[in-house]
Each structure stands twice: as structure tokens, then as C-alpha cells.
UniProtKB/TrEMBL annotation:
ATP binds at residue 731. This is non-specific serine/threonine protein kinase. The keyword Transcription regulation does not apply. Residues 38-76 form the Leucine-rich repeat-containing N-terminal plant-type domain. SMART domains: LRR_SD22, LRR_TYP. GO terms for cellular component: plasma membrane. GO terms for molecular function: ATP binding; protein serine/threonine kinase activity; receptor serine/threonine kinase binding. InterPro entries: Kinase-like_dom_sf (IPR011009), Leu-rich_rpt (IPR001611), Leu-rich_rpt_typical-subtyp (IPR003591), LRR_dom_sf (IPR032675), LRR_N_plant-typ (IPR013210), Plant_LRR-RLKs (IPR050647), Protein_kinase_ATP_BS (IPR017441). Residues 1-31 form the signal peptide. Its EC number is 2.7.11.1. It is found in: Cell membrane; Membrane. The chain crosses the membrane at residues 648-670.
Length: 767
């Protein structure tokens, strides 16, 4: 009985327990479903603040299914809570909903590469389980919320390429688990707090391209795990604390484009044995090139252009098999004697070298024959502005990947080697300002990818090769200041791609100008001054719709000024002085609204001087030396009767003199103003290179609206990314035409577009 009773009691107990368990389970299920419902609601309201493409990339996000099945949503293994959200690159537009702060189990939030704008909602700082936050490449604004310190588990914070402003909150240093802190390319200002060194696990610190001021805190050297330190393009001043050169973990050290000074320690390579990328360009560093860098056998990039470095190139360049870029341009590096450039021979061991710049120094020497043994990958070779002499070695023809060769402003002599025609990838050939003689080899015509050719200021003679007609991508040609003779090949006047300048001035070119000149539809400046050209001015100039400057002074051109010049609406400067032009001044020139300088002096022009348009402004028009010109009121019946004209001639001459003085004054003012406007950094713009339409198209994602920064009467501005993560901004007038990519030292790039009626314009400069 007792046992029965106890048995039944036991049974009852078990039943009771089971019932409780059941109750508990129900509660549990209820709480779970509540949470997933919270997550779902949060995601739905997150979605509701976005404007989405059609078809919507978030079409799977609907009330009927579990959020764990939605695009970009990750739940924990039981499928109960949302732990990850990865919506990168879905072209999401809109602001971030504060409801995102309800995803309380979230560990990873990846919204990079979208168009999200507005501030980071404070509620994000409730997500204390977050480990990864990547919101790079959006349009987020506002500051970094202080309460971000709640995210104690955060390991990655990547907010690169947004418009985040304000200072870097000191509180960030409480994020002890942070390994990656990337705030580059934002609008941050203020100083870098030394407390940042308290984030002891940090291995990637990128604060580049902001507006940070103050000095580089020496505390940073306490970051014993730091591999990447990028402080490029800021306003940092002062000397670099020596402790920074002690951070042996560093793989990348970028301080370029600040206002830092001090001697570069010669043992930097010994102290930073893991360094692969060293970028100290555009600062005020002194001392010599640290030879110890040449001891780092794995190093890939060495850049210290635009500083005040002195001394010679230290030995050891033969030890760098992985070197890709060596840039010591625009310093005060010296060398002397015939063998002054022997260090180039050592670089033949660097089989991956693609960029070599030694320009703007005091290097003396002959280009070694071994230049042809440099890397097969060598794409850019800058040697201009030194004291290089002797001939260009034939071996240069072996550098088949070369896209840019700049030897300008040296003392190079001898002839241009025929072998240069083998460099079929060339886009820029600059040999200006040397003593190169002989004739231009026909083989240069093989360089069909050329964008720019500058052979000006040499002693070249003979004819311009008609093979130049093969330059179908040429944007500018400067052959001025040589001794070229013969006529201008009509093939050159047919180069429709020419869009900045055709400069053949100061040569001995003769013969007539062909009607073909009409093909030069895109060119902004044509300068044929100081030659021996004869015959008529072709009326077909009217088709050169982009022309702003037409300079043909000091030739033997005859016949009338074609009235069709009045159709070149953008013409600003027309100089036909010192020719043998006759007939009257076409009244159509009055219609040229943009014309601000007209020089027709010393010709045989006659008849009435028009009175409208540019002719209203005496200071813009120069007519002296044309004895038969007359003003309307005093024009004799017979324009040939001289007597009364003398007076007019004198008065015109006086007016012209006054005008000349005014012009000089104006020029001085304009110069002064220019000097004020252009910041020093832009004055150092030295290197031009072309980018093809195709490259541009790729860089901007086929001119994707997503990359459209703004548009207006000026055209449209796109942002884009070129190779190697180079960021660009481009202004598009006509996307079918070519662009000029301006390369600043150390690969700070900017775009220039040259198109009439506006000439080249720098659009933006970024790294
Ligand atoms: C996810 O979708 C699949 C079918 O598409 C379905 O079988 C599964 O039950 C769904 N899971 C959840 C948690 O909704
Ligand atoms: C979710 O977040 C919003 C805004 O932060 C808040 O108003 C709401 O009460 C939250 N909902 C839940 C279920 O927690
Ligand atoms: C953030 O996303 C971008 C774009 O996908 C990626 O390149 C970058 O490496 C990510 N950041 C981190 C720290 O992983
Ligand atoms: C920041 O977090 C603290 C607690 O960590 C809280 O008291 C405070 O209200 C939060 N501030 C904001 C603006 O959310
Ligand atoms: C760094 O952390 C230590 C203790 O963790 C603290 O005493 C110190 O004030 C912090 N330094 C800065 C600069 O915040
Ligand atoms: C950067 O900071 C300097 C000095 O604080 C200031 O003069 C300048 O206007 C700032 N530039 C930008 C782009 O904010
Ligand atoms: C650099 O490190 C060495 C060895 O760790 C140390 O003795 C020296 O004081 C450090 N120098 C600086 C400037 O921090
Ligand atoms: C390069 O390394 C060698 C051997 O380790 C050493 O003898 C030499 O002094 C170093 N050169 C420089 C410039 O540091
Ligand atoms: C190239 O490297 C080899 C082996 O590493 C070395 O012996 C040679 O001297 C180097 N050449 C030059 C020009 O430095
Ligand atoms: C051009 O100059 C070369 C060398 O100075 C001379 O031989 C040739 O006859 C000249 N040609 C013409 C057409 O004047
Ligand atoms: C006009 O042409 C003459 C002759 O070529 C020249 O001397 C004068 O400087 C020119 N004037 C202007 C303002 O360009
Ligand atoms: C070529 O080098 C010279 C001298 O350094 C410089 O003036 C010129 O701008 C350079 N041209 C290009 C396209 O790099």
C-alpha cells in the first residue's frame, strides 16, 4: 500500500515536473520567437529606409519567411537570432534605420560599397556583440559616436571613404580588441591622440587622406603589432619621432604628403626589417637616401620624391629582386662623371620593377647601355630635369612595356635611335630640351598608342616624318624650336585626335598649308609661328571648332584672311602678324565673342577696319604695319591714296602702343593672381599621362550613376578607382573623347580634361 502510495506520488511528481518542463519549453519558444520577431521587425524597418533597385536585391526579405533565409542575413546555428548582416555592394541608397540597434545578437555588420548617407545611428552602439563593422565606401556623414566604446568586442572598424567629420574620439582607445582601424578618406580633423597607442592589438591603422593636424605621436610606437601605418595626405607637421623608426613590426609605413621634416635615419632599414612599402614623398625630409633600405631584400616600394634629400644613390640596389617602384624624383641627389648613372645597372636585378623615377635631381652621367636590361615590366621611366649627357642607347628599344619615357631637360645629344620605334606601348615620349640632332626616325610612327610627343628644343633637322599620321590617339604634339624643314605633312593635319596643342613653331617649315587642317576638330592651340610657310590660309580652319589659339606669326602667308575664321566661335587669340596677307579684314571677325587678342601687324591689309566686337577694344587689336588700313569715318574714297592715311596709321600705332603697355600690365596682374590661386602642391604638377576612354569607363563603372558625384552646366563629375586603388574624380563633358590624367609625384593623380571652348582644367587630386 505504502509502496503503491509512494509509487503514485512518484508518478505525480514526475508528471508535475514534466508539466513544468513543458511550461518552461513553451516560455522558451515564446521568448525565442519574440527575439527573432524583433530581429525581423528591425530588418524590415531597416529595409524601409532604403530605396532599392529593381529588381530589388532584397526581394527575399518578406514578412512570410524567416529572416534567416533572407539575402545577406546570417543566423546562429539554431536559426534563432541574426548574427550577421552582409549587404555589401548591393547599391543600397538611403539612411541607416535606428532599428538596426535592435539586432542585439549581431556580430558582423558589413554594409560597404553602397550609397548609404546620413549619420551612424547611435543605436548601433547598443550592439555590444559586434566584432566586425565595415561601412567603407558609402556617403555616411556626421561624427563617430562617443558611445562606440560600448562595442567592447569590436575587432574591425572600417569606415574608409565616407564623409565622416569631426575629430577622432579619444574614447576609441578603449576598444581593446580592435585590430583594424581604418578611417581613411574622410573629413576628420584635429590631432591624433596619443591614447590611440592604448589599442595594443592594433595591426592596421589607416588615417590617410583626412585633414589631421599636429604631430605624429611618438606613443604610436607602443603598438607592437602594428603592420600598417598610413598617415598619408594630412596636415601633420614636425619631425617624425625616432621611436616610430623602431617599430619592427611595420610592413607599410606611409607618411607622404604632409609637412614633416627631419633627417631620414640611415638605419631605418635595419630597424624596420619587415618593411615592404616605404612612402615618404612630398614632405620636407633632409639627409641622404637611407642605404639600409637597399638592404631590405623583400622590399617592393621605395618612394621619397619631393623632399630635400642630398648625397648620392647608396649602393645595394642590386639586392632588391621584388622591387616594383623606386621613386627618388625631385630631391637634390647628385652623381658625377660618365658613370654617374651606374646605379641603374644594379636595378637590372629587380625583375618586377615597373616604375622608376629619378627626375628633378642633380644626376650627371651617361645612360648606361644596360638600361635595356631593366625589368621587362618597366612601364614608366622618368629621368628628366637632370644633367644626363651622351647618347640614348639603342638598347632602350628592349623595354617593351614602357608607356612613358621622359628624358626632357637634360643634355642628351646624338640622334634618336631608330630602336625607339620598338616601344609600341608608349603613350608619352618626352625628349624636350636636349641637344638631340639628326632627323626624326620614321620608326617613331610605329608608336601608335602615343598620346603625347614632345621633342621641342633640340637640334632636330630634316622633315617631319609622314609616319606621324599613324598617331591615332595623339592628344598633343610639340616639335617646336628645332631645325625641321620641308612642308608640314598633310597626315599631321589629319590627326583628328589632337586636342591640346599642335606646336611646330620656330622651325624652317615651308610650303603651303593643306585644306586637311579641317580634321583638327578637337585641338585647342595651333602654333605654326616662325616658319617659312607660304600660300593662302586655308578656309577650312573653320572646322577646327575647338580652336582657342591660332598662332601663325612670322611666316610668308599671303592672300586674304579667310572670312570663315569668323565661324571658329571659341577663338581667343589670333596672331597672323608679320606675314604678307592682303585684302581687307573680314567683318566676320567681329562675331568672335571670345576673341581677346588679335594681332595682324605687319601685313598688307587694306580697307575698312571693322568697328564691332573685338575691334571696339583698342587694347586687344594690333594693326600697325598695315599702311592701307583705315577707320570708317576717315576712309578715303580710294583706299590707296596714302596722304590722309598716315594720320590714321600714326593714331593706330599710338593706340597700339598704349594697348601694348596695358596688355603687359594686365599680364603682370594675371600672373600675380595666378600665383595666388594655385597652391604650391599644384605648382609641382610635373607628369602628364594619358588614360584611355576604356580605362576611364572601367574606373567609373561604365559611368555608372552610382559614381556620379554631381552634375550641372559644367558637365558631370564622376568618381572612380583606377588600378592600384588610385582614386580619381573626373569631370565629363563628352565621354567619347580622351582625357588627360595628370600624375603628380608619388602617384597622387588628378584629371585634366582638355576640350574647347574651355581649356584644360584640373578636377581633383587624390591618392
Ligand atoms: C528556408 O527556405 C527553405 C526553402 O527555400 C525552407 O525549406 C526552409 O524551411 C526555410 N527556413 C526557414 C528557417 O524559414
Ligand atoms: C527597436 O528600436 C526602435 C528604435 O530604436 C525602438 O523604438 C523600438 O522600441 C525597438 N523595438 C523593439 C521590439 O525592441
Ligand atoms: C571592408 O570592405 C572593403 C570592400 O569590400 C574591403 O576591401 C576591405 O578589406 C574591408 N575591410 C576590412 C578591414 O576587412
Ligand atoms: C552612452 O552609453 C552610456 C552607457 O554606456 C549611456 O548611459 C548613455 O546614455 C549613452 N549615450 C547615448 C547618447 O546613447
Ligand atoms: C592607456 O591605458 C592606461 C591603462 O590602461 C591608462 O592609465 C592611460 O591613461 C591610457 N593612456 C591614454 C593616453 O589614454
Ligand atoms: C584643414 O585644416 C586646416 C587647418 O586646420 C584648415 O585651414 C583647412 O581649411 C582644412 N581643410 C579642409 C579641406 O577642411
Ligand atoms: C628603439 O628600440 C631599442 C630596443 O628596443 C631601444 O633600446 C631604443 O631606446 C628605442 N629607441 C627609441 C627612440 O624608442
Ligand atoms: C647592409 O647589410 C649588411 C650586412 O648585414 C651590413 O654590413 C651593411 O652595413 C648594411 N648596409 C647598410 C647601409 O645598412
Ligand atoms: C644581382 O644579383 C646577383 C645575385 O643575387 C648578384 O651577384 C649581382 O651582383 C647582382 N647584380 C647587380 C648588378 O647588382
Ligand atoms: C632640309 O634640311 C636637310 C638637312 O639640313 C637638307 O639636307 C635638306 O635639303 C633640307 N630639305 C629641304 C626641303 O630644304
Ligand atoms: C604682334 O605681332 C608683332 C609681330 O609679330 C609682335 O612684335 C608683337 O609683339 C605682337 N603683339 C602682341 C600683343 O602679341
Ligand atoms: C618630363 O620631365 C620634365 C623635366 O622633369 C618635366 O618638366 C615634364 O613635365 C615631364 N613631362 C612629363 C609628361 O612627365
Amino acid at each position: 500500500m505504502a509502496s503503491l502510495a509512494s509509487q503514485s506520488m512518484h508518478f505525480g511528481l514526475v508528471a508535475l515536473l514534466t508539466y513544468f518542463k513543458f511550461l518552461l519549453l513553451i516560455q522558451c519558444v515564446q521568448s525565442v520567437s519574440l527575439s527573432i520577431i524583433t530581429d525581423k521587425e528591425a530588418l524590415i524597418s531597416f529595409k524601409s529606409q532604403l530605396s532599392l533597385l529593381t529588381p530589388s536585391p532584397l526581394s527575399s526579405w518578406n514578412q512570410d519567411s524567416s529572416p534567416c533565409n533572407w539575402t545577406g542575413v546570417v543566423c546562429n546555428i539554431f536559426g534563432r537570432r541574426v548574427t550577421g548582416l552582409d549587404l555589401s555592394g548591393l547599391r543600397l541608397e538611403g539612411t541607416l534605420s535606428p532599428h538596426i540597434g535592435n539586432l542585439s545578437f549581431l556580430r558582423s555588420l558589413q554594409l560597404q560599397n553602397n550609397q548609404l548617407r546620413g549619420p551612424l545611428p547611435l543605436q548601433i552602439t547598443n550592439l555590444f556583440r559586434l566584432r566586425v563593422v565595415n561601412m567603407s565606401a558609402n556617403k555616411l556623414e556626421g561624427g563617430i559616436p562617443m558611445n562606440i566604446t560600448n562595442l567592447v568586442e569590436l575587432e574591425i572598424l572600417d569606415l574608409m571613404r565616407n564623409q565622416i567629420s569631426g575629430t577622432i574620439p579619444e574614447e576609441l582607445s578603449r576598444l581593446k580588441n580592435l585590430k583594424v582601424l581604418n578611417l581613411a578618406r574622410n573629413l576628420l580633423w584635429g590631432e591624433i591622440s596619443p591614447s590611440i597607442a592604448n589599442i595594443s592589438l592594433l595591426n592596421d591603422l589607416n588615417l590617410g587622406t583626412n585633414n589631421l593636424t599636429g604631430t605624429v605621436p611618438s606613443d604610436i610606437s607602443r603598438l607592437k603589432n602594428l603592420k600598417i601605418l598610413d598617415l598619408t595626405i594630412n596636415n601633420l607637421i614636425g619631425s617624425v619621432p625616432s621611436s616610430i623608426y623602431n617599430m619592427s613590426s611595420l610592413v607599410y609605413l606611409g607618411l607622404a604628403s604632409n609637412r614633416l621634416w627631419g633627417r631620414l635615419p640611415s638605419d631605418v632599414g635595419d630597424k624596420l626589417p619587415n618593411l615592404l612599402d616605404f612612402n615618404f614623398c612630398i614632405n620636407q625630409f633632409t639627409g641622404t637616401i637611407p642605404g639600409s633600405l637597399h638592404n631590405l631584400t623583400n622590399i617592393q616600394i621605395i618612394r621619397m620624391a619631393h623632399n630635400f634629400l642630398e648625397g648620392t644613390v647608396p649602393p645595394g640596389l642590386g639586392n632588391l629582386p621584388f622591387l616594383e617602384m623606386y621613386n627618388i624624383g625631385f630631391n637634390r641627389i647628385v652623381s658625377s662623371g660618365d658613370d654617374g648613372l651606374a646605379f641603374l645597372t644594379s636595378l637590372t636585378n629587380s625583375t618586377r620593377l615597373s616604375f622608376l623615377a629619378i627626375d628633378g635631381n642633380l644626376l650627371e652621367g651617361v645612360i648606361p647601355e644596360s638600361i635595356g636590361s631593366l625589368s621587362k615590366e618597366l612601364s614608366k621611366l622618368y629621368m628628366g630635369g637632370n644633367r644626363i649627357f651622351g647618347k640614348i642607347p639603342k638598347s632602350i628599344g628592349r623595354l617593351r612595356s614602357l608607356t612613358l619615357l621622359n628624358l626632357s631637360y637634360n643634355a642628351v645629344s646624338g640622334e634618336i635611335p631608330v630602336e625607339i620605334g620598338q616601344l609600341e606601348e608608349q603613350q608619352f615620349l618626352g625628349l624636350a630640351g636636349n641637344q638631340i640632332s639628326g632627323s626624326i626616325p620614321n620608326s617613331i610612327g610605329n608608336l601608335e598608342k602615343l598620346n603625347q610627343i614632345d621633342l621641342s628644343g633640340n637640334e632636330l633637322e630634316g622633315e617631319i616624318p609622314s609616319t606621324f599620321g599613324k598617331f591615332h590617339r595623339l592628344l598633343s604634339m610639340d616639335l617646336s624650336n628645332n631645325r625641321l624643314n620641308g612642308s608640314i605633312p598633310k597626315e599631321i593635319l589629319s590627326l583628328g585626335s589632337l586636342s591640346t596643342i599642335l606646336n611646330l613653331s620656330n622651325n624652317f617649315l615651308d610650303g603651303r598649308l593643306h585644306q586637311e587642317v579641317q580634321r583638327l576638330e578637337n585641338v585647342v592651340t595651333i602654333d605654326l609661328s616662325n616658319n617659312r610657310l607660304s600660300g593662302d590660309i586655308p578656309s577650312s580652319f573653320k572646322n577646327c571648332k575647338s580652336l582657342e589659339k591660332l598662332l601663325m606669326a612670322n611666316n610668308m602667308l599671303s592672300g586674304p584672311i579667310p572670312s570663315t575664321l569668323g565661324e571658329v566661335k571659341g577663338l581667343e587669340v589670333l596672331d597672323l602678324s608679320s606675314n604678307q596677307l592682303s585684302g581687307s579684314i573680314p567683318s566676320d571677325l567681329q562675331d568672335l565673342q571670345a576673341l581677346r587678342s588679335l594681332n595682324l601687324t605687319f601685313n598688307n591689309l587694306q580697307g575698312l577696319i571693322p568697328t564691332g566686337g573685338v575691334f571696339r577694344n583698342f587694347s586687344s587689336v594690333h594693326l600697325e604695319g598695315n599702311v592701307n588700313l583705315c577707320l570708317h569715318l576717315v576712309c578715303p574714297e580710294n583706299a590707296q591714296s596714302r596722304g590722309r592715311l598716315v594720320k590714321i596709321y600714326i593714331s593706330v600705332a599710338i593706340a597700339a602702343t598704349i594697348a601694348f603697355i596695358l596688355l603687359i600690365a594686365m599680364l603682370i596682374i594675371v600672373r600675380k593672381n595666378k600665383g595666388k590661386i594655385i597652391p604650391a602642391s599644384e605648382l609641382s604638377i610635373k607628369k602628364l599621362q594619358m588614360i584611355s576612354y576604356e580605362e576611364l569607363r572601367q574606373a567609373t563603372g561604365n559611368f555608372n550613376q552610382e559614381n556620379l558625384v554631381g552634375s550641372g552646366s559644367f558637365g558631370s563629375v564622376y568618381k572612380g578607382y583606377l588600378r592600384e586603388g588610385i582614386s580619381i574624380a573626373v569631370k565629363v563633358f563628352d565621354i567619347k573623347k580622351n582625357w588627360i590624367l595628370e600624375e603628380l609625384p608619388c602617384r597622387v593623380w588628378s584629371f585634366k580634361k582638355c576640350e574647347a571652348p574651355k581649356s584644360c582644367e584640373i578636377v581633383d587630386i587624390m591618392l
